[in-house]
User: Which sequence fits this backbone?
């Protein structure tokens, strides 16, 4: 067994092999060239996002919310549609030890993003069947979200496809 003194020497040797940080804070390590133009919405254009991602299980649902807000700010009629396990994202009852609290940094990120999206004029639909799969109550949805019948998922997709919407369908297992 290695002695505490020898362990300390090995630790210090390992830490000293490469200088940390190798670059000072604020150093560029990636280029900044944007390839595509910053497209803005044309008259009457829509951006429809389906979200089947579970809150905090991956970045899929959160990134979909960020993209929907960016589309809204570009002038698109922007819609988020949470279905299946994605319905969990729209719960106002998230928090620990009480609702609205963050038991860990970022616990309220999804809620804050959905609320900001609604405040800025976005539309949010939530599938009632998705809620029922997890025992979630409709009255616990984030204010301003619109509960929908399970058959509305497909018809909403058809509606926005017929409008010529850009469709962003996100999914995680």
Assistant:
């Amino acid at each position: 067994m290695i002695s505490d003194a020898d362990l300390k020497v090995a630790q210090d040797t390992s830490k000293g092999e490469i200088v940390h940080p190798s670059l000072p804070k604020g150093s560029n390590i990636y280029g900044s060239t944007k390839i595509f133009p910053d497209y803005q919405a044309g008259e009457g254009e829509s951006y429809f996002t389906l979200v089947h991602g579970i809150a905090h299980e991956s970045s899929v649902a959160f990134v979909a919310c960020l993209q929907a807000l960016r589309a809204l700010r570009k002038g698109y009629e922007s819609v988020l549609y949470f279905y299946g396990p994605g319905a969990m994202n729209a719960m106002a009852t998230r928090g620990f030890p009480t609702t609205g609290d963050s038991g860990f940094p970022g616990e309220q990120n999804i809620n804050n993003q959905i609320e900001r999206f609604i405040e800025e004029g976005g539309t949010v639909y939530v599938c009632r069947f998705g809620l029922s799969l997890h025992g979630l109550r409709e009255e616990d949805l984030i204010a301003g979200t619109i509960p929908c019948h399970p058959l509305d998922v497909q018809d909403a997709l058809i509606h926005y496809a017929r409008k010529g919407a850009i469709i962003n369908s996100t999914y995680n297992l």
Summary: The first strand starts at residue 46 and ends at 52.
